[in-house]
Amino acid sequence: MEMKFDVKDLFLYVIVGFLVILTVSSFFSSQPKVTIIPISQILTDAKNGKIEKISVAENDLTVKYKDGQTVDSRKDPNQDLSQALFSKTDGLGLEPDKIALVNENDITKNFWVNTFLNFGPIALSSC
Fold first, then answer.
1. What is the pLDDT of residues 80-95, one digit of tens each?
2. Concatenated DSSP letters for 51-97?
3. Cβ 11 vs Cβ 60: under 8 Å
4. Could you report the per-residue pLDDT of 33-67, keeping only the tens digit for each?
């Protein structure tokens, strides 16, 4: 009995294989534990000079303390963090050279998801 080569079957096997590998790798991934603290604590620690750097990715904050500790936090979507830290009138009034504020917004982070959502149905319908 001959096996017939079919592109649809090959595509299905590739997708199933990818999902199996993804599932297995999720069980074995080791991510360091990161503490999540409220934004009010971040602002208090910034005022007290304990923070070295704040990385901002949309509303997610990764804060590195001067003692080497790293914590996560979230800010309000409407909150301007640079104004809250550096404004003399309605913020903490910190000097910009005392704390590093890094914007890490990445417009390509959802590239593959958007590509699959846009072209996946076309690829599947053409098989």
1. 888 888 888 777 888 8
2. EEEEEEETTEEEEEETTS-EEEEE--TT--HHHHHH-TTTS----TT
3. no
4. 667 899 889 989 998 999 999 999 888 999 999 99
Cα 39 from chain centroid (whole Å): 17
| Token reading at 118 | 């846009």
Alpha-carbon span 101 to 83, nearest angstrom:
11
> What's the domain range around 69?
35-103
- Structure tokens of 65? 């303390």
Spatial separation of the C-alpha atoms in residues 97 and 118, rounded to whole Å: 44
Q: Is residue 25 part of a domain?
A: no
Q: What is the CATH number of the domain that holds 71?
A: 3.30.720.210
Tell me the C-alpha distance between 62 and 113, whole Å.
24
